[in-house]
Amino acid sequence: MSGFGWAEFARDLxxxxxxxxxVMLVTFLIALRKGVHRIVDVAWGLGFAAVALVSYxxxxxxxxxxxxxxxxxxxxxWGLRLAxxxxxxxxxxxxxxxxxxxxxKAPGNPALYALRTVYLLxxxxxxxxxxxxxxxxxxxxxxDGWAWAGTALWALGLAFEAVGDSQLARFKADPANKGRxxxxxxxxxxxxxxxxxxxxxxxxxxxxxxxxxxxxxxxLVSPLVMSFLLTRGSGKALLERHMAGRPGYAEYRAxxxxxxxxxxxxx
Length: 267
Prior knowledge:
- The structure is a single chain.
- It contains twelve helices and no strands.
- By secondary structure, the chain is an all-alpha fold.
- It folds into two domains: 1-141, no CATH class; 144-267, no CATH class.
- Keywords: Membrane, Transmembrane, Transmembrane helix.
């Protein structure tokens, strides 16, 4: 029989928020020194890892140790892989056009505007989206079918992200592909294997707490917010607007799924 420490969960929520905001504030100071705000994308994954590690430490003596270790490992592995990948991808590049456009219309001080609308907002989102992770540390029942189903979905998501990112990096590294649309491998099944992977990762982590219906109901907002960001917010929708004018993209879009993988349509 599973139990849940609601009081302990509430106690640790502000600490987790502090960890997420702390990562973003440190990143903001580094960004000011370097004069480039694109490094906040690296901090996104690091923020989730920090929340998991702080929550693990705070929950010592609470919950089931097996679940605590499992959720910590899953979150940290995902967060660090994402941070390393984005860091390598952005090395040697200037500012991200998204942040250039944002700061160009900043009222008043651009740095303070970036702090409010980018760093603090992303810190708050890290905290909100990671609620299932934070809650998992306070579930007392041993690992069950929900936990293993969530782990399997997490593994599928991580594989989609890692393989898709690797395929895209190899494609871009070939000079013969300059100006062409990546439509091979996983990218022939979905236009966004990395975003679909994120979707699976966070619904998988949510499944880990579904052993307790009350906890699942209290944290359902988290995967829903992540799903919205991936499909309608700063993920798929924003990228597709950017790619719309590229030669060949309309044809690629017509034959390839926009999110959930499926075999490509015939031309």
